[in-house]
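Supplementary Text 2. Reproducibility record for the structural model of the 307-residue chain.

All settings were left at their defaults, and a single model was retained for analysis rather than an ensemble. We include the record here because the model underlies the residue-level annotations in Supplementary Table 4.
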Amino acid sequence: MNEISLDLSPYDLFNADYCFTSGQIFGWKKINGYWYGVTKCKLLKIYQKENTLLIDSEDDIKEKEVVDFLRLEDHKNDIDRKIALNQFMSGAISRFSAVRILKQDPAETIISYICAQNKNIPAIEKMIYELSRMFGFKKEMDSISFYTLPNFSKISNLCLKDLLTAGLGYRAKYLLETGRRIQGDNTLIDEIANMEYHEAWKKMAFGEMKLSGVGPKVADCILLYGFGKMEAFPIDIWISRTYATAMEGLIDDENLDFFRNMIYAKKNPGKRLYLELGDSARKVFGKYAGYAQLYMYMYRRNYFRYL
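Retained model, structure tokens:
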């Protein structure tokens, strides 16, 4: 057992509960006050007591890996000040200031967000659990069983029927095609990592690096949570519903009215509107657009869920 006691006092605010319930990562469970989950195929057990994090793992884990995964070196106080630009954002930050965007494994993030399409979080969790249980590796801690996601080598050798038995539905075809594409080109993930945000987004969603099942929103989720491209601004139904309120006073009224009318006229924004919404947010929040999106998402889901 590898055990780490991490002093949080050198870092800005951190709250494990916010991070693992913010919709950015799947498969983490809180049991008897401890968070259990897998990252980079390593099972971690995390407990927060005020300014101390206690981390246990049966796998070899270094303190720097934990710091990187939790993005503890992000200067959150500075980030929060720079994006608290109106009443809505200030309220969201006041409530959830200790949340951080996690630095997840790119491959695990690609798999997770291909599975996450058009599903609510409980359904996503169930689907990913079944996929992991059937085709990943079993790990145990405290007499509790967990499973890693299958890697692309494993996925590429499955057939469509195998993935359908995990309950993926139409996503099975996407995951199989993407698995085989990445397994056949082991430089693709590194190439994406080395691109600037806009180039990576265009190539992943529409261009020569197009991955099966990866459209504008999924590409943004993957780039934000898997590659740390903080300009990404994923727009799902929750962001669509709160965008006009969250951006009040931050973009001109004419554009705000246009976005408001377009959003309420359709369930999800099309490609053109999606890009305009994201670019407008990036003009306002700059390189911290991803954090602004996460605050909008959490504030809307937790406080304005039924509006």
